[in-house]
Write a structure and sequence with these properties.
By secondary structure, the protein is of the alpha+beta class. The protein has one domain. It has 5 helices and 9 strands. The longest helix has 20 residues.
Length: about 140
């Protein structure tokens, strides 16, 4: 499949989320991978090291295309750094299945997650379901493609 646009969401370098061409996405991926390595060493501070350990590099540079429709609709995400291909539900479908965004979680669940070093922008695309008194994060399905 040929893609005309790639998505980038810089995490360890300055920048804003954007749709870009392949060359730019590959450059962002390289820069982010390098900055991630530096963050893991602790040279950028303890909070950044902890943040890098929690977040990794997946979801920084990727392509998206649609698959299915209705209740079977999924976003197919191909990660340019990890190579992982996943099928992800839309936020509205996740909410219908009882998943909550970080802001919707009760305070005790936010504390239980232990995500203190993360920024609000790190949590925007993550969802949890309360299962037996424990918040469990939504995991996108591995693609069989």
């Amino acid at each position: 499949m040929r893609f005309n646009s790639y998505n980038v969401r810089p995490r360890y370098t300055p920048g804003s989320p954007a749709a870009v061409d392949r060359k730019t996405a590959e450059q962002v991926a390289r820069e982010e991978r390098d900055a991630y390595g530096h963050a893991l060493t602790g040279i950028m501070g303890e909070n950044e090291r902890e943040r890098a350990e929690l977040l990794g590099v997946e979801g920084i540079a990727y392509t998206l295309h649609e698959q299915g429709s209705g209740r079977r609709f999924r976003w197919v995400q191909t990660d340019l750094i990890t190579g992982r291909v996943t099928l992800r539900m839309q936020p509205s479908d996740l909410e219908r299945q009882g998943y909550l965004s970080f802001d919707q979680l009760p305070p005790w669940a936010r504390v239980a997650l232990g995500l203190g070093s993360l920024r609000r922008s790190d949590l925007g695309r993550r969802f949890w379901k309360i299962d037996g008194g424990t918040p469990v994060e939504y995991q996108a399905e591995e693609s069989k493609q």
